[in-house]
Amino acid sequence: MTETSHVVAHFSDGKLLKGTTQDFFPNRPTFHLIPEGGGQAIQVQCKLLKAVFFVKTLQGNPKRTGIPAGFIAAPAATAHGKKVAVRFKDGELLCGYTLSYMPDRDGFFLFPADPESNNIRVYVLVAAAAEVKAGPAAEALVRKVLDQRKKKP
Questions:
Q1: Phi, psi of 29 (to 5 degrees)
Q2: What does the domain layout of the chain look like in residue ranges?
Q3: Which residues contact 104 (CB under 8 A, 6 or more apart)?
Q4: pTM of the predicted model as reported, rounded to 2 decimal places
Q5: Coil, strand or helix: which one is 114?
């Protein structure tokens, strides 16, 4: 039996599609998303995406704060892999762990560092990232982004 996953597809142009999928595979160029509320399945081209968020609920977590407190001091590795930070071209920063990041691949799964996150896992499209850093470099990237945010009025 095929598993149905709740997903939020974030496109590089800022568009979002929420719904469910049963046929997302990281090595395929497309998948189908059944929109929230029903309707015809939409074929989604992965090359147009920033990331696919596999979520607990499609409503999200209104208490989301962004960078989880304690990420910098968190363990360098967990059962979900090594520590990683991704800064997307649109400025969004994701922090978590990965077992599968390789710069020459189209994408990889990131498991959120924040256990309270609505995200179960995120498939990151490398082409949409400005920077992907692992280990101590991930911590340095998070510090840099936090410092930049503090300086903005």
A1: -80, -15
A2: 5-55, 77-151
A3: none
A4: 0.91
A5: coil
